[in-house]
Amino acid sequence: MSLDRYEPLFFNANFKEAASSGGLVAYRGELVLKEGEVADANGRRKPPTEVLKQAVLLGDAGGLKLISGSLDELQQYPFVVEKFGAEFNTGTIAVFFTVNIPKGFVTTTNGATVAFIPLVQGMVWTELSDLVALDKGDFKGLSAADKVVTVFDALKSYKFKLAENTVDEALKTTNNAKRETHGAI
Questions:
Q1: Domain presence at residue 48
Q2: How far apart are CA 62 and CA 65, in angstroms?
Q3: Which residue of 40, 48, 87, 103 has the fewest C-beta atoms within 10 A of its own C-beta?
């Protein structure tokens, strides 16, 4: 599986490329979780209504190895499971930086370890790298895909220091937090 089956879900793609070894393919960009309505008789669609922002995917012939991104609301997670859950297995690592949760937690979906970490501002790639204590020097000279492999390799031995919880229980504690963005005025 070279992530080709997910290509219709790619949105605002940064790259999709093969890593230098192991038959791995990486993707960074956004992923459509719920498509927009059909806009006209030609079948063109309006923009997606639900998107996994700043997504990072890594896969090979054996399935999905890594999925990460930013969810505006924990309530979007069922869309992730609907689109990608069949590929989740014990070898899959999933990390979702979620805006509207007060505390991080870890759960299991189809055998995959899934971590939810609160984040109202920041970049997924930076937070993911910081989580496993990687810095610029660890990525020097690597291709974009090999950088994703480096993060995945570090995550394989990382132990999340988060409480176990179910998504259903965590949904009862969500808040009204919104993503904070800063930029030019």
A1: yes
A2: 8
A3: 40
Alpha-carbon span 24 to 32, nearest angstrom: 22
Q: How far apart are CA 96 and CA 83, in angstroms?
A: 15
Per-residue pLDDT of the chain (185 residues; tens, 9 = 90+): 468 888 999 999 899 999 998 899 999 999 999 988 888 888 888 889 999 999 999 998 888 999 999 999 999 999 999 999 899 999 999 999 999 999 999 999 999 999 999 998 889 999 999 999 999 999 999 999 999 999 999 999 999 999 999 999 999 988 888 877 665 65
Asked whether residue 184 is assigned to any structural domain, the reply reads no
Q: Rounded to two decimals, what is the model's pTM?
A: 0.91
* Cα–Cα distance measured from residue 119 to residue 132, given in angstroms and rounded to the nearest whole number: 16
Q: Which residues of 50-80 are buried (b: 16+ CB within 10 A; e: fewer)?
A: bbbbbbbbbbbeeebbbbbbbbbbbebbebb
